[in-house]
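Appendix C reproduces, verbatim, an entry submitted by the partner laboratory led by Prof. M.T., so that reviewers can inspect both the input and the predicted structure.
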Amino acid sequence: MGYVAVSGGSEAILKAEELVAYFRLKGDSAPLEVGQIKEQQRLAVDKVMGEGALYAPTIAALSLKQAEGDNIEASFIVRAYRATRARRYVSLPADTGEMKIIRRISGAFQDIPGGQILGPTRDYTQRLVNFSLLDEERDSVRDFLMGLDVQMSAQQLPDTFPKVVELLRREGLLVEPSDAGGGLCDITRESISFPCRRSAKLQSLARGETGAMMALAYSSIRGYGDIHPYLGELRVGTVPLRINHPGANEPVYVGGILVTEAEIIARYDEGDKSGKPQLTLGYGLCFGHNELKAISMGILDRTLLSRSAHKAPAEDEEFVLYHIDGIESSGFVAHWKLPHYVTFQSTLDRLRRTRKLKEDEDAPAGL
């Protein structure tokens, strides 16, 4: 984990902590309830869980309250909390084919088996301020909810949907991802090294900061790279997790987690040209409902397949994986707030000596 708090005058530090609490509470409004954040700020909670690398909605909501809505600070708190937890079990690989869908779309195919399901999305709404939310009351919320058939619509959906990319896979049009390094890497137990194993790369991307990943993916799409992605399928839903338990003869279901999955299709121009041309697949999956992150992850997974001798930043494995971690990045940037008196004085001393030497060189001879 990156840079953390520095030592200093204990009294001043304690007062600073009190001021943080003061600025959070000094208004006249009632203290925020964690349940409200968890339910009504769900997308922020999902981001914090993803970047904090822990699926714990209540802890993520509490961290957002503690951090006054600062997403990166809340993620830092969650990841630190995660480091204190015992790891009792490791789940079996989750099959996203079992996902209970709440949203499913494809940008590559209009008609997909099972149909497209828009689900909860703001994709087709205008970004205008909704002033009616200023006076949102419990009665109006209850009337709105009673007028919807959300539960009935959910019950009408099938249990599973076929994967869209299977259409291409059955035709042999997809290059299957490979992992030359092999083996499963746990980046919470061992440092990543380069070239990076695919499992380590996907783990790093899964807990990357959404904005950083989006910026790098965007750079590749704009031309600082060489792919043109298509969204094969975007899914949002709940996948079941199971574990092997010593007291059971078969895997035990322990619960479901909400995830967003994106499969990105792109052309393939590199490598062996002797075979038939194929498409490549980039994969993205993250905790919660976070479509920009899943799509960005899928694009970056694909850009990192590049074997070009002249890679763009988004195609450079080390560049991408070392710069998308919001907690590491924020820690390093924030550490410039800490005292650098000695190093800066050294810089000033060198500058003054250099200026003096230059003045001596420029002085007329004989003076």
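DSSP finds 14 helices and four strands in the chain. Additional entries are available on request from the coordinating office.
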